[in-house]
Structure prediction request, 218 residues.
Amino acid sequence: MRESKKARAERVDAILARLDAEYGTEYRCYLDHETPWQLLIAVILSAQCTDARVNIVTKELFKKYRSLEDFAAAELSELEQDIHSTGFYHMKAKNIISCCKDLVEKHGGTVPRELSELTALAGVGRKTANVIRGNVYDDPSIVVDTHVKRISKKLGLTKADDPEKVEYELMEVLPKDHWILWNIHIITLGRTICTARNPKCSQCFLRELCPSAGGMKG
DNA sequence: CTCCCGATAT
DNA sequence: ATATCAGGAG
Prediction:
């Protein structure tokens, strides 16, 4: 049985209402930062690493490197040690130095707003670029990370496996005013209830709206 | 497609 | 021991 378009739209509205009621409608960022370029570096470091670990590392990192110029001039081996515990440290360090050099030399020390300009930076892919666009510039954008992909699929809002396809399918389903918030709400849900291992469906406030929780009939 | 890679929970 | 974590590059 395939869910009708109207039924799905109503279910999405109900899901969004419950997420808003549970988590609020104010955007919060899990990565500590004071400036856009600090957020960019934090997101680069967050690849396959918990945000809690990134925050431990950036707390000291941003004391040591106080500007984009400091990062651009960093010694590779030294920066590798500074970010070691986030994993993938060799590539991340190389990318951060290259990225910050570009920001200083080609973007006047600012973080660009366009998706194409962001993804042209070393270490910045579609997901990282969309975090910047949403959080820094309030441009409606859907961030597809591991949680968003997993939970959007479980909720039956996409069947795609490619993150970019997930992003486009979610754009069809979600109202634009919830694009930015979707990511942060789903991450919050994914860290506490709808975890990758042992999801607590019985405790989930979306269980009656979720095909994977067995809460939907027919 | 493979590789990058440490920390943590289970 | 193994799965997973605010992915991206070659």
User: Anything to note?
Assistant: The first helix of chain A runs from residue 5 to 23. Chain A has two domains: 5-27+142-213, 36-135.
